[in-house]
């Protein structure tokens, strides 16, 4: 009996290691093909009736009648579970809308009924099962006022830049009909914020364009019907389309649309304990505070969140849930009687403005627009031109106004500044309420300032002396300017009131334009012309912080500025520094985005596991991998053999060449011996014994 060679037994593990990858891929392909794939393709309703796939309704009826006649003749062999499946398949495939949805999209939203009925009639006669099993639904959203679009008018609807929210539904879907009330509420909440429409599954072309696709290209409704998709602003193709994958509810859909699609900031709720430290104390001093009282505690609507984004630079919004036990607290603090209510808080010390009742979106936006500015506006880089407090600009009264004024309260953020802001608000109210038609009110100490304020030649504002330090030091030129401007270096804060007189001279402006047209200019001319077009004169108020005294001083400054011939002095005013904007936290948080990405990845993996092409693909991969391993091993085995053969061939060639040389020398020797001649001495031979040296005639021995 022959024994196995040690080399063959030791090479078997190496062969298995080499072919490990092909073997693993082959086993995976077999597991996929025999176990995973059949689960993804359960028995269809056509198979239950014994009808070919996509058979007609007549074929379904004939098959059902044949089964029913067989059962009637011998009902003892029929089981309730079989009857339920056959009856269900018959009702589904004889309804035109249900059959269409099942054939085209694989939708079978009532499949759970089979399992429920099987449990209910597990031990009873199938004759006791009540038919029909399914209740037909006819859902027509057009009758409810919803807008429907088709593939013919789809492109024409996307003319504006507004976002779109689209519902894919079926007229025979019970889930779509039940979602009707929620969709009505969603449409109302999105009024003015986004467009909305509905698409019926009968429009195969448009549904195929909008719906999700499997890896095979087949339309997929992963979460059933209805399916909701959205087009963000400026998006007009399916490449930027966003799908809703959450629970179908009014709150979930509107929050998803406002956060993910529109990327709107959230408006949070606060209690009476957290309102001051978490909201009022953190809102920048240049913004209006808006408090919305709610009875229900529901999320901020998309229109409110859109307003929070649009008015972000002017106002900050928050919600408060109204509780009856807190009614007295809110009345004493803000004079709020009940909810819903809207409270506007502007400058420090001013009484809040309260609006009771729930208005529509237009009412809400009108109130925000009317109250977006502080009563005493802040002078900043974005408001200087609008307020007329910029030497490079013009008066609020118009381009033709030559002389105008700006009274500015300057100081660092402090209690003293807030008190002076409250005083300046009273000054502004007094000037605004001054009635010139009243004979008693024609006070020469008030009339000039009131008239200038009414004609928009006098503007009152306040300036943050710490943020706008260069601008502040430019106007407050005194030994104590550090008490007002720049970073706080001592506990002393001294707000100051300045009045700036702006004056534009038509002659001087013409000369400036004439000089600017001349070219080239010298360095000195360029520096001299680099000044603001309007002349400025600044006066600081040093009187008591009382409203009548400040008004008298303003009137005196306006009267002198209008009547006296003051010098035309121009300078280069420092630029106002852009205020650091409050960061807007909008969009989906990163943690939620990561979770959604993992969920999409898992769904894609499940789609591949249900793809019938995966089995053959894995088998082909196993074959190619095995061929690659075989080719690599074959070349590795043949390479040493070829090297040995090449070495042997080279050695034999060298030996043959050497033998040929020896034979050639022997033949040459034999030819010389045959002629009897001696071989001539070579220069390499030894010196002969009888050799003598013969000297020439010209040698040295002569």
TrEMBL record:
InterPro entries per the UniProt record, alphabetical: DnaJ_C16_autophagy_reg, DnaJ_domain, DnaJ_domain_CS, J_dom_sf
UniProt-annotated stretches for the region Disordered: 639-702
Ranges for domain J: 44-106
Biased segments, Basic residues type: 663-673
Feature: compositional bias, Low complexity: 642-654
One family name in Pfam for this protein: DnaJ
Residue intervals passing through the bilayer: 16-37
Stored SUPFAM superfamilies: Chaperone J-domain
Record key words, sorted: Membrane, Transmembrane, Transmembrane helix
Source domain of life: Eukaryota
PANTHER family (UniProt xref): DNAJ HOMOLOG SUBFAMILY C MEMBER 16 (PTHR44303:SF2)
Protein name per UniProt: J domain-containing protein
């Amino acid at each position: 009996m022959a024994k196995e060679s040690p080399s063959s037994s030791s090479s078997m593990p190496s062969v298995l290691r080499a072919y490990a990858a092909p073997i693993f891929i082959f086993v995976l392909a077999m597991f996929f093909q025999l176990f995973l794939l059949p689960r993804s393709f359960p028995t269809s309703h056509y198979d239950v009736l014994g009808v070919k796939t996509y058979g007609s309704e007549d074929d379904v009826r004939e098959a059902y009648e044949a089964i029913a006649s067989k059962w009637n003749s011998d009902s003892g062999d029929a089981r309730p579970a079989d009857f339920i499946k056959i009856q269900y398949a018959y009702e589904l495939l004889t309804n035109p809308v249900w059959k269409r949805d099942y054939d085209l999209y694989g939708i079978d939203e009532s499949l759970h009924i089979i399992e429920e009925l099987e449990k209910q009639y597990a031990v009873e006669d199938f004759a006791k099962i009540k038919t029909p099993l399914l209740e037909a639904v006819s859902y027509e959203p057009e009758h409810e006022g919803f807008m429907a679009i088709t593939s013919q008018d789809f492109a024409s609807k996307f003319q504006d830049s507004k976002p779109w929210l689209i519902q894919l539904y079926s007229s025979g879907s019970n889930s779509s009909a039940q979602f009707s009330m929620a969709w009505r509420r969603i449409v109302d909440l999105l009024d003015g914020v986004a467009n909305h429409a509905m698409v019926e599954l009968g429009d195969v072309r448009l549904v195929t364009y909008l719906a999700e696709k499997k890896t095979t290209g087949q339309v997929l409704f992963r979460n059933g019907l209805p399916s909701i998709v959205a087009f963000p602003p400026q998006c007009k193709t399916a490449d930027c389309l966003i799908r809703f994958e959450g629970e179908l509810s009014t709150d979930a859909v509107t929050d998803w649309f406002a956060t993910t699609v529109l990327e709107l900031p959230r408006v949070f709720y606060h209690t009476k304990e957290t309102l001051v430290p978490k909201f009022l104390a953190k809102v920048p001093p240049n913004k209006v505070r808006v408090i919305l009282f709610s009875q229900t505690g529901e999320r901020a609507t998309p229109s409110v969140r859109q307003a929070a984004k649009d008015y972000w630079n002017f106002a900050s919004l928050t919600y408060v849930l109204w509780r009856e036990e807190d009614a007295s607290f809110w009345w004493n603090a803000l004079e709020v009687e009940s909810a819903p209510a809207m409270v506007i808080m502007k400058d420090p010390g001013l009484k809040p403005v309260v609006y009771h009742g729930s208005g529509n979106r237009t009412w809400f936006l009108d109130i925000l627009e009317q109250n977006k500015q502080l009563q005493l506006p802040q002078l900043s880089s974005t408001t200087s031109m609008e307020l007329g407090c910029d030497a490079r600009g013009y008066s609020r009264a118009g381009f033709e106004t030559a002389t105008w004024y700006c009274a500015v309260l300057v100081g660092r953020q402090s209690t003293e500044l807030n008190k002076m802001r409250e005083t300046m608000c009273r000054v502004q109210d007094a000037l605004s309420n001054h009635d010139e038609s009243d004979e008693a009110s024609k006070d020469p100490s008030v009339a000039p300032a009131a008239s200038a304020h009414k004609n928009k030649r006098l503007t009152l504002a306040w300036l943050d002396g710490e943020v706008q330090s260069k601008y502040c030091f430019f106007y407050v030129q005194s030994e104590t300017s550090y008490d007002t401007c720049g970073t706080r270096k001592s506990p002393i804060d001294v707000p100051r009131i300045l009045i700036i007189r702006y004056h534009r001279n038509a002659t001087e402006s013409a000369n400036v334009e004439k000089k600017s047209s001349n070219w080239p200019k010298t360095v000195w001319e360029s520096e001299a012309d680099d000044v603001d077009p309007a002349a400025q004169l600044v006066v600081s108020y040093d009187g008591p912080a009382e409203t009548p005294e400040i008004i008298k001083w303003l009137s005196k400054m306006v009267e002198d500025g209008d009547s006296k011939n003051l010098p035309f002095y121009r300078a280069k005013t420092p630029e106002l520094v852009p205020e650091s904007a409050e960061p807007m936290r909008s969009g989906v948080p990163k943690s939620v985005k990561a979770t959604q990405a993992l969920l999409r990845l898992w769904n894609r993996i499940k789609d591949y596991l249900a793809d019938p092409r995966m089995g053959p693909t894995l088998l082909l991969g196993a074959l190619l991998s095995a061929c690659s391993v075989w080719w690599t091993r074959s070349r590795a085995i043949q390479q040493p053999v070829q090297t040995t053969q090449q070495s042997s061939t080279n050695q034999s060639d060298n030996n043959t060449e050497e033998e040929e040389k020896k034979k050639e020398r022997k033949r040459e020797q034999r030819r010389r011996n045959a002629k009897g001649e001696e071989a001539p001495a070579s220069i390499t031979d030894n010196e002969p014994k009888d050799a003598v040296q013969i000297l020439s005639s010209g040698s040295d021995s002569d």
